[in-house]
Amino acid sequence: MDGLSALGFNERYGRVVLASLVDPGEPLTGWVVSQVGAAEAVRALTGDGPAPALNRVEADLWRAKQNPNVDARTVQDAMVAAERHGYTTLIPGDPNYPTSLEDLGERAPLVLWAKGAESLLGTHVGERATITGARASTAYGEQVASEVAAELARHEMVVVSGGAYGIDAAAHRAALAEGGHTIAVMAGGADRLYPRGNADMLDRIGDVGLRISEAPLGAPPSRTRFLARARIEAALSGSTTIVEAGARSGSLVAAEQARRLGRPVGAVPGPVTSAASTGTNLLLRDGTARAVTNARDVTTLLDRAPTQNRESAGLAGPDSFRHARGSIERGHHGHEL
Predict the structure, then answer these.
(1) Can you give the pTM of this predicted structure?
(2) Degrees (nearest 5) of the Cα angle 182, 186, 192?
């Protein structure tokens, strides 16, 4: 582990090493980094002596969580590959690091690997809207997701989703078709174009939009990473809208994460006979979400976002968000949608 400690000699490299060693969103690591910085956290995690800010029991439990299959060569190779293929890393304090992620506290990503237009993360949080939902979607759900995402994209809102089949893909493709802005939050490494059936779309997003991940390059998607990704999707945007979701759909995790963050949640109502709409109808029944039927409903959600969340992210400020919202409400030709 001495090699890993040497790699993490500063804050950026320290965060890269830690992200390779621990599960995404691991709160104890986040807390140690907040107390002593990433470089010192690497030394503590990879050593066996006292760990700053932790007692012996806490330190032992923390060290037991690290991935034993990661060594210095693995991390160094990933760093070289990232530079060679045009991936960058973003950490707190970087110009385009989305400060809305800081609302996650100790569960905030240690680092983001990015491919594409990083400036999309520097926009105001109210200019980003997450749209996600079932992988096993219906034609109805895909149509609604496409129409909402296209209208948002036409008015320069950034559409955030997870790059998956179904609702995610419909939202991304609609934004791309409009020449708009979209961000794909990947469950594996940002270089893993998964699922394979969406590889062309994800490749294009890396060219004209943005792919990001908190997982190191080459990391495969896993259940843990899929679930952890939901908190990033929720924290990146001023609102989260679920278009379709089964009763146990993973996309409902994004809604729950948004609710915990105090971000408004939207859900598209669906037929009571459709299993794909069970989850969204339950969100509406329980009062967790507000009904979304068009892009104007999404901008209304954004307008309801708590002030501290809307102002916590972005360099663009609130004026451009208000302009986009008003434009959507008037419609393309000044008419009510």
Answers:
(1) 0.89
(2) 115
